[in-house]
């Protein structure tokens, strides 16, 4: 039953064919991540924890194979003392890697990503859509975009990538 | 285009912000105690100087925090960004 | 005949010939040529005609100062009004000459223009000697960019160099916009700069005299540049007339390239020895204190008239001085002043400490200038109607004199009166010249007259370039519900950035027919709609109730867990800004819904009140709009459908009351079910995490099939709610409407000490009995359609007796409600006191007699919501 219901989930970019694997640039959606916004003065524990603003964090965890109104990670973070909100289905995660990844974003985002260190995160607009951009490595970025904007952003990214695909 | 120095995120494009008008106009403690003129003054009357103005800005597309700064209304020069203090 | 020299031309590649078509005539050129150099090499003297006079016009300049050579490009999708001096040739380039005005291209532009943001510690504009020095000196400061509009920039250590890039606008706080010309489409660069160094050089300006617009009259420096850059001889027999040393240098260069220079005239009474020697060594006669008084020739120059006699020549090369290129300096507010030493306007007060200017742009003297330039603009003789100040606008000295006669003395006024400098070239050639001539006309010093204001862009930018990739489906972000694929076959309505299904037509069904069917289904059976787009905000904390009591007009803190309440929000001015329902999920968690278009504004307003006025409240807010997919199941049979889907849920009216919510599973999917209704019918809203949205839609459709469940769109939703008199904020309200005007006094608390808007609602004006009220309207004849936006006037009012007193307007109108008859909602002066009255709803001067009713036209007693 659980497996059947889990199989019914559709990520925002399901069926769009979004994705790219070119020498200097890869793009992919990582669907169904456990995403939780936390309000607390101190950083919550977690593998991928992004600071969105003062006392405001986004925790990105692996997909949870459970059928529930909210992902278990939200409950865990609440138990640890933060005010936690499940946004796993509110946002989806795009992963961009390669030397062209930051340039690709610079076609539609005025933020200087070069000053964002590994582990750092900025929120702003990319191609008119509000996003959080987290850096996981010198050439790798995670883009968190609201589900309703995901197709627009995916279309825009695929178009912007044209000069970097040979 | 101006660059707005968010105290939390650094310099960002104006398009990420909402402008909140003059700072220091506090919501009256007891609106019902004000006569119509005093209430209208709270709602509508601002100093509108030619020169330095202390303003409120909201980094809506970023950290979503309100903050204050001083802007010169002729040159757009900006100084003294600071976190919002209760008014 | 070719004017191409056998050797020379620093910018052309003679191994790569290209063919270009001008007005149907094929000409040969080389890669690296501009269209202007190609035409000059092919000896085509005509490059355009005067926009009003139709007079033939020839090439004057070599760059952005060119006033005449603006062409219509026909190849590669086409482009109107392109400056030939900045148009790089390519094989197959085809153009048409113009008379000062291009034509918009009807076909979509297929060129791939794009946009790029970048960040620099220092950007230097201009790759000349001063710019290179400044860039090299800045290189330790970090990311340093040197850009130049020429075809190549030599590499520089520690500096990024971009060629073919023109800075078009400098804005406050170090934002520079530049255009990079690329073979596959141009790129608009947004450069954020720590500081900007302007090394933009100076632009040569001409001199004016009778028939100065005759083809064959060129700027002297430009003429020499055609030799140096493109290996093209601009004439065979030349007269050179100058007011400064660089003009003399051009005369020498032209002579050395093989032009027979018949005479050099200098307005000054002496020239420096090195130039006197150089000209004398080439046997070129020099006339000091001399001027050109006119020209002759048919469509091109054949004779030059001078104060020293007439000369047969096919080239008149003139040079009146150099204007420091201060346009970018001026864009963000930099000031200039006239300098007699420079004979030009030079930068003075800066636009801020981020911007500096160096080299010729700063008024530094030109290389190998020995004597100061003359402040000299025009011949003392000639027919003012044949002395062209701005050939691009076909404006003459006569026009300027007319402006003066009309009493205009400010250069800004003269510009608007004569249109000088208002063409696509923005007066780059004519501007300072006009200021000089005006000063002479007024008998005032040039510096007193001053310049007009330079505004971006420095060069024209195409709309295609400004749009970049934001075109077609990318022109504005589109927001899609997570079950969009299930409803994508329906015609869509734009609601903000959302696409929402408008109606679900069956085969050959019209909008009206489909909506009538959908309305019938909800009123008599069951319907389903995607309600996911409503804004949703999760509020958490101990003080949420306190906050809600302050921002909603009614009381919320008393709401029990498990219940839902409808609320209205006002601005401080007492006018309605939003409405929606809020559910209490737990002691400390509340889920607020907002109208679809207002979600961001409501969240922003809540944050503003919390952060700036009541930071002591323990509340956090998180947008969760996209977290939830919502399917509304509405109609008398909805309970049967929901019962089938959610076997664990007791859906009976006694167990699950109106305005309550329950957690359960729907078709196995974890869900929150709310009993709220926007149609007046028994209804359930099923909320699931949005990755199950499509599955939920399928499950509802399947479970509802035995009951004939009917998908419905926004149009039917509007009809259903309008029959119940539920207003839509932003449609039935317009920022001047209070809750009382909407008949919602029941939602305005009298007990609360304060809420946002309360004080304004206490004003006498907010309590006037004759304010506009929300009312219903039906056509008197029962069949005539009422048009949304119609004005309401007295019945039988004379519509020709302007002004017709207006009593209100129609805010929502529909061709058919549940009874198949047209009806509408309206805002009407003192409307609630006028029930039964007959008025005319006027659209386009056609009156429709309407009767005023209450806003609720269906189920007035409200008995249907429990099924």
Automatic annotation (TrEMBL), chain A:
| Pfam annotation, one family | SoxG
- Extract the SUPFAM superfamilies matched here: Folate-binding domain
The lineage's top-level taxon is: Bacteria
Report the protein name in the record. Answer: Sarcosine oxidase subunit gamma
InterPro entries in the cross-refs:
SoxG, TrmE/GcvT-like
UniProtKB/TrEMBL annotation, chain B:
Q: What are the protein's GO molecular function terms?
A: sarcosine oxidase activity
GO BP annotations of the record are: tetrahydrofolate metabolic process
Source taxon at top rank: Bacteria
Coiled coil feature spans: none
Return the InterPro entries for the record: SoxD (IPR006279), SoxD_sf (IPR038561)
Q: What is this protein called?
A: Sarcosine oxidase subunit alpha/sarcosine oxidase subunit delta
Protein species of origin: Nocardioides lianchengensis
> Could you read off the lineage of the organism from its UniProt record?
Bacteria, Bacillati, Actinomycetota, Actinomycetes, Propionibacteriales
TrEMBL record, chain C:
Residues annotated as domain FAD/NAD(P)-binding: 163-328
Ranges where the SoxA A3 domain occurs: 385-469
Any one of the GO CC terms: cytosol
Query: Where does the record place the GCVT N-terminal domain?
Result: 488-752
- Residue ranges of domain Aminomethyltransferase C-terminal in the record: 772-859
Keywords linked to the UniProt accession: Oxidoreductase
- Domain of life from the UniProt record: Bacteria
The record's listing under InterPro entries reads:
2Fe-2S-bd_N (IPR042204), FAD/NAD-bd_sf (IPR036188), FAD/NAD-binding_dom (IPR023753), GcvT/YgfZ/DmdA (IPR028896), GcvT/YgfZ_C (IPR029043), GcvT_C (IPR013977), GCVT_N (IPR006222), SoxA_A3 (IPR041117)
Question: In the record, what terms sit under GO molecular function?
Answer: oxidoreductase activity
Q: Name one Pfam family in it.
A: GCV_T
Q: Which family does it belong to?
A: Belongs to the GcvT family.
What protein name is recorded for this chain? Sarcosine oxidase subunit alpha
